[in-house]
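User: Please fill in residues for this 176-position structure.
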C-alpha cells in the first residue's frame, strides 16, 4: 500500500518547529527561495521581469529591491497575496505551514490563536490562501482533457429527518 503524502519526506520540508526557530534573515531567504525558485532566490523585478536588481532596504530594515532597468522598487511580496503585508514574514510562513498541514482545514479562530493575531486578520489570511489555491486550480478539469466526469447521485452526510417529525403531528400541510 502506498504511503500517505503527509507521512512522506516531501511533506516535511516546511515544519512549524523550523519556522518558529528561524531568524528574520532566514525567514526572508526561505520566502525568497519560494518566490523566485527559478533563480534560487535572486530577485526578479515584478514590473518588467528583469534579473538585474539590487538591495535597497528601508530604514526599518524592510527588504526592498530596486530594478536597474525600470528603476522601480519592489519587495519579496510584490504582486503576491501577501503584498502590503504588516505581519513578519515568519508569521506568513507559519500560516502557510499550518494551512497546508491541516487535512480537514483550519478555522480562523484556531489560526488566530496559533499565530497570536486577531480573528479578522486570520480570517482574511485564510481567505487569501484559499483564493490563491482556487486560482492555481482554476483551469483544471476533472477527468482530464477530453474526458467527462459524471456524478449520478450521492449522499454527503448530514441528518435525514424522519417522516412525521415536522412538529405537525405527522400531517403534511401545503401553503395556501
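Assistant: Residues filled in for all 176 positions:
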Amino acid at each position: 500500500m502506498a504511503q500517505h503524502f503527509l507521512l512522506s519526506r516531501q511533506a516535511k520540508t516546511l515544519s512549524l518547529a523550523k519556522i518558529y526557530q528561524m531568524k528574520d534573515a532566514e525567514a526572508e531567504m526561505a520566502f525568497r527561495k519560494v518566490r523566485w525558485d527559478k533563480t534560487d532566490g535572486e530577485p526578479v523585478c515584478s514590473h518588467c521581469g528583469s534579473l538585474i536588481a539590487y538591495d535597497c532596504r528601508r530604514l526599518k530594515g524592510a527588504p526592498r529591491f530596486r530594478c536597474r532597468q525600470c528603476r522601480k522598487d519592489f519587495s519579496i511580496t510584490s504582486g503576491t497575496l501577501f503584498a502590503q503585508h504588516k505581519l513578519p514574514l515568519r508569521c506568513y510562513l507559519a500560516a502557510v505551514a499550518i494551512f497546508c498541514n491541516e487535512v480537514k482545514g483550519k478555522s480562523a479562530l484556531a489560526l488566530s490563536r496559533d499565530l497570536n493575531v486577531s480573528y479578522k486578520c486570520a480570517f482574511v489570511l485564510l481567505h487569501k490562501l484559499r483564493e490563491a489555491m482556487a486560482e492555481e486550480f482554476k483551469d483544471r478539469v476533472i477527468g482530464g482533457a477530453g474526458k467527462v466526469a459524471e456524478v449520478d447521485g450521492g449522499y454527503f452526510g448530514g441528518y435525514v429527518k424522519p417522516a412525521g417529525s415536522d412538529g405537525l403531528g405527522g400531517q403534511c400541510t401545503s401553503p395556501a
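For context: The chain is about 30% helix and 5% strand.
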